[in-house]
Amino acid sequence: MESSSPRLFCFGLGYTAQVLARGLMARGWSVAGTCREEATVTRLQTLGIAAMRFDRDRRPQDISAGLAGATHLLSSVPPDAGGDPVLDCFESEISALAGSLTWAGYLSTTGVYGDRDGGTVTEADALAPTSDRGIRRAAAEARWLGLTRAGLPVHGFRLAGIYGPGRTVLDDVRAGTARRIDKPGHMFSRIHVDDIAAVIAASMARPNPGAIYNVCDDEAAAPADVIACACDLLAVDTPPLRAFGDVEQQMSPMQRSFWADNKRVDNSRIKTELGVTLIYPTYREGLRACL
Asked: Are 190 and 163 a contacting pair, CB within 8 Å?
């Protein structure tokens, strides 16, 4: 991964990509990319990131100049109802980078596996998304990985639920909005944002175009258990358990879609192929660090 002037261009400089960017810049990388809000563009520019605004309805005119010199490319932009906005707008410019990129990556989600009734999924399992969001994500992932046939070194990362500083159940407990929902046997996988950045950096160091990696920690857990842990850390009373059936109708469609899928995600490949040792192997270590 090390070169005289490594440069990352990232479509979608959001929460996760910014953590990655800061780590790379500390090692001498230059970083450029896009974000949706003008205020974020300004903030990132003050940090030395060559940011520009982009969404499907607002395309930067100088995208080719921004991509020039990129050795690594990452997209964390989710698909919308129309498809993948990045490829819809810039597939030709991205394809022109074949032969010059050392590595490219696409951040997907474990939601592409759909519901497995509590079973374990690996990267070898067929995709079976159950929600519209999952279906769109699977299609976008396939489209990005299909670019390997054109010579682009694309890698796919299926992320579990992301948490980290400022985005944990600790914040919900403090705000008094945490709800402990009881749905027996239902588990979620999670991943700390620092570990996502470490996995991506490890992949950059060991390119394997076309590879797909599940990115999650070592322990799927019921959300109620995670909230109870947060309450213990904050030394506050734990909210009572409420049956899923009693609160389901109060949930937004997106919240219900998360609860529709029940699976455990195998993360062996990031360890065996990339040599990753998780900083936060379970939510317990991650929450303590965030606290």
From this structure: yes
Instruction: Give the number of C-alpha atoms closer than 13 A to the C-alpha of residue 104, restricted to the C-beta side.
Output: 25
Write down the mean pLDDT value for the chain. Answer: 95
pLDDT band for 2, please (50, 70, 90 cuts): very low
Instruction: Extract the tokens encoding 32.
Output: 């450029």
- What is the pLDDT averaged over residues 146-157? 97
pLDDT band at 252 (very low <50, low <70, confident <90, very high): confident
Least confident of 18-27, 40-49, 53-62, 200-209: 53-62
Considering the chain, what percentage of its residues have pLDDT values greater than 90? 90
